[in-house]
Write a structure and sequence with these properties.
The protein has 202 residues and is mainly alpha-helical. It is elongated.
Length: 202
């Protein structure tokens, strides 16, 4: 094999290696994209589920409880308002998630959306804690202090509402802790995926 043939062979080999490298990079990018999209879909499903459950409680469950128990109208209105206030950050999060477009937006734009989403998540804790405290305070003050028709007395009759409140809070905390852990993991996967996709853009 003379020198020219050797050069031609090396040139062909270089072209094949370049094509292989490009194909491998495309495969890696597609894998990162798919992993990020899967984590994003998980967060969307979780947020939609939480929103629908809360809407169900606000529009169906609590009105049903009100119609079938001696709750005072003022108590019902106050608790309903507190639960509606708790929906505001959920709506904000869903609106941010709708803007998340892995194909149409750059990784920098998506990173800014993730930061805005995390900020709303942080604020949501304050909203939820505040609305829950407001709802419970309104319920017990108005019902125990002013609802004479219900006939509450400071004896065993109070065990049921108090026990139900504590049980609901305990179950809510356990479920919230599990959801927050899963949500944090999915959010970390999205941030890691965007960081890796940014390297491809550079």
């Amino acid at each position: 094999m003379d020198l020219e043939e050797l050069k031609a062979s090396w040139s062909m080999l270089d072209k094949r290696l370049e094509k292989t490298e490009v194909v491998n990079l495309c495969i890696v990018r597609e894998m990162i994209h798919h992993k990020t999209k899967t984590a994003y879909n998980g967060i969307v499903v979780q947020n939609v589920y939480n929103f629908l459950v809360n809407i169900l409680i606000v529009c169906v469950v609590f009105p049903y409880v009100y119609m079938n128990t001696p709750l005072h109208i003022t108590t019902f209105a106050m608790v309903e308002c507190a639960m509606v206030i708790g929906l505001i950050p959920m709506i904000c999060k869903l609106s941010l998630l709708l803007k998340f477009d892995l194909v149409g937006k750059s990784s920098s734009e998506l990173t800014r959306l993730v930061l805005s989403y995390k900020k709303v998540c942080h604020q949501e804790k304050v909203w939820v804690i505040g609305s829950v405290c407001l709802a419970l305070t309104a319920f017990y003050i108005l019902e125990l202090g002013f609802n004479m028709e219900a006939g509450y007395t400071l004896d065993t009759q109070l065990i049921f509402p108090l026990g139900l409140t504590l049980l609901t809070l305990a179950l809510g905390l356990v479920f919230a802790k599990w959801q927050l852990s899963r949500h944090a993991q999915q959010l970390a996967e999205i941030e890691a995926g965007l960081q890796e996709l940014r390297e491809f853009e550079n």
